[in-house]
Each structure stands twice: as C-alpha cells, then as structure tokens.
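Cross-check.
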Amino acid sequence: MTHDERLRHEARVAGLREFRTPSLEAIERRRMQLWILAAVVVVTAAIGVAVVATWPSLLPSDLAAGPTLRVSLVLLSIAFCAYAVDKERALQRLTRMLTDERVLTAALTNRLHEVSLLLEAGRAVNASLELRDVLDTILRSATELLDAGGGSIMLLEGDHLVAACVQGRIEAVGGRLRLGEGIAGLVALRREPILIDGHADPREFPGLADREPYVESAMSVPLVHRGEVLGVLNVNAAVGVGFTQYDLRAVSVFAEQAAGAIANARLYEAERAALAEVEALRAAVAGGRG
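Predicted model, tokenized:
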C-alpha cells in the first residue's frame, strides 16, 4: 500500500471520508467532535444510571426490577469509549503521517528555492536571454531535481502544443498536440497538474498516443504566467522509479518559476525583433535618401 493509499485509508477509519488528503486542522476538529460526543454519551449514561437507582418507580416494573437497564447503560458507555479510543488512535496515526508529509514538503520547497535562485542567477548572467537556453535550463533543472529519466517542454501555439525542448527523445522535438488531447493537452486545457502511474487510461485522455518507450510514471504540469497558459512541463521518471504526490507538488511550485522565466525570454525576443525591424526601417529610409 502506497503512502497516499494509507493516508486515505486512515482518513476513512477516522471518519474523514469527505477528505482525499485531510489537513491537520480537520483532524483536530474531528478529534474535538469525537471527545465531546464521548463526554455527552458518558454523562448521559451516568445520569441514566443515577435516575434508575434513585427513582426506580419512574420506570416500568419489568425494567426497574432488575439491573438490566443499568448494565445496558454502562455497557453502552464502555462500548462508545472503546470506539472513541480506536478513532483517536487512527487520528494519531493520521497526524503523524501528515506531519511527516509537511516536513518532506518543506524540504522539497527548500530545494525548489535553490533551483529558483539558480535560474535567477542564470538569467542575470545571460545577457541574451535566449529562449532556447532558458528552456534547456528549466528542463535540466527539473530532471535533476527529481532524478528523472527525461522530459519535455511543450509551448502553446494557437490551439496546439509544440514540443520545443526534449530530453531523452530528441526525435520528439517539434511534435504537435491539439489542446485538450492526450495528457499534456488536457493539462493545458484544465490548468491542473496530472500524475500518471502505470498505463494511462485512453478513456480519460482522448487522443492519447502510446508512449514509446514505455514510461512507468510521469507528471505533466501547466506553465502559467499571470493567468496565461504558456505550455506544459512533462517529466518522466527513471526506470524502476515512481513519482509521488510530493513530487507533483514540488514540480508544480517549480513550474511557477519556470513560467516566469519563459515569459521573460519571450518578452526579450519580442523586443529584440521589434528593434531589428526599426533598424531595418531606418536603413531602408537612409538608403532611399542616398
């Protein structure tokens, strides 16, 4: 059973069925509700036993004559307390798992911050801000961060995604995918990251093409800058390795920094192209006067 499956199982045992990944705050609320209810049941049972012992005449003769009702109330209290203790143990296990997850996420965030600083330093020393260099740096940093086996960056051009940078399958450069088709197309359309383990279901991803060679685990994350989808970052796990939700969260944070770098590089290229047009126009005007 994977970590995520154990997390969902413990959440169901603890009574948090509406949560796929419950927060620590939700666990504390559940714990408070559980023990308040336990206290109410115990107090109510104690009052019932006291009433039966003090005023037996208030009850029907067949109940008051024997200890049946008092024993039943005591057993009910014991049973509910046992139930509360069992749920408390599940909540404690869930708390430990989520605490460990937060620690690991914090560690990954620190690594992402380091990569972000590297990207910032690279842009600072790279006076040309060539888009190709930026894409290569982003993809290399992503694969190194996750010890991945390869990946690609697909940029959005109209209603198609075009593979602009590929690591692992050079022949895939220039490949096109319609928006909404396949895994990357669906990620770009919905603006939501996707983690795939094993074979992807073609029913979930219309137009899905077979991945050759076969990839055991992969992630696709949208590259969004200021509300605009620029493309999709795809990362493939190395052979025998599977990505987790931790990795998906990490690469999602990294993609935010990457999208900003791509937007800056595109802006620089546009400004350079505009400047070249102005220079060409000036040269033409000067030649006409001569």
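Strands lie at 150-157, 160-167, 176-178, 194-197, 217-225, 228-236. The chain has two domains: 3-103, 126-276. Passed to J.P. for a second look.
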